[in-house]
Amino acid sequence: NVGSGTVREMQQWIEYLTLDGQSPMADLRRANGREEPWAIRFWGVGNENWGCGGRMRPEYYVDLFRRYSTYCRDFGENKLYKVACGPNGANYHWTETLMREAFLQMDGLALHYYCRRGRKSSSATEFGEDDWFAQLKAALQMEEMVSKHSAIMDEHDPGKRVALVVDEWGAWHEVEPGTNPRFLYQQNSIRDALVAGLTLNIFNNHCDRVRMAELAQTVNVLQAPILTQDEKMLLTPTYHVFEMYKVHHDATMLPLDIISTAYEYEGDAIPAVSASASRNAEGKVNISLCNLHAGQEMDVECELSGMTASSVSGHVLTAKKITAHNTFDQPESVKPAVFTGARIDNGRLYIQLPPGAVVVLELE
Asked: Could you tell me the pTM of the whole model?
């Protein structure tokens, strides 16, 4: 807690949790019932210090980071991975200051970005195509931010030792009616699935620098994969996207170029298709695609370079209504289904993407 905590408090917490030897803090842990230390690797040295963590200037925070991180010490075999508070969205001055003054003391730099923009409605489930379009356009800004922050990091760290850690991202809607506004409980629709899919595609395509990325909340808060109510639980569309994208875990990113038809709406335009690809240890290629268009199917033709594929299979997550979401009465309204809209012909892959859909394919 760099905002209101002390260096001593921080150092003692690390010692209490991770020291496997004898010390007052390690002995206190044992007295409290825990003999063995915890293997805690990742440590954020401050959080949102540009905002709720102290409203600091980067020039002030970077000095605090240098001071606090000096006392983040390794004990035994537990090696700390120190993540500095990074920028709020497109604050490139923050990244420049931190990388210039402190990149040798950090392992990661944390970027936070939530897409909250709506034209008419901020509701998670009551909106029209205008708000659908505005939300996805805002989510696509992650591409520009990751690219520009990475370029600044490259100037100071060309070896890419420091990771860009996007440890808070996603959609931020109004809370559900009748719930405590401070608890940030919101629903999750097929639109949020598109936000998750296109954002994960961006991270996949920048995996040389983005090596950690988390939804900050898992259950009941903001873009949550899981919602609960008393003894009930449901999986949101965002959960299903994360499950579908597991195929990219421990795989090798494959670069791809997309020439996409524009999704035009009321004089504005965004790319209609987002995608990323990888090859796993068994040699199978997985391609994840998002059709952002709310009402139009997209035909995708893909040239497969460097491989000969004979079969394609996959799953799709989509819905008939752009506001579709799961409820405790109907918890499986939005869930993945087998996808049959892809074929291989003469070494080329042809895909028919339904409107508002996330598709993950496996090629062999």
From this structure: 0.96
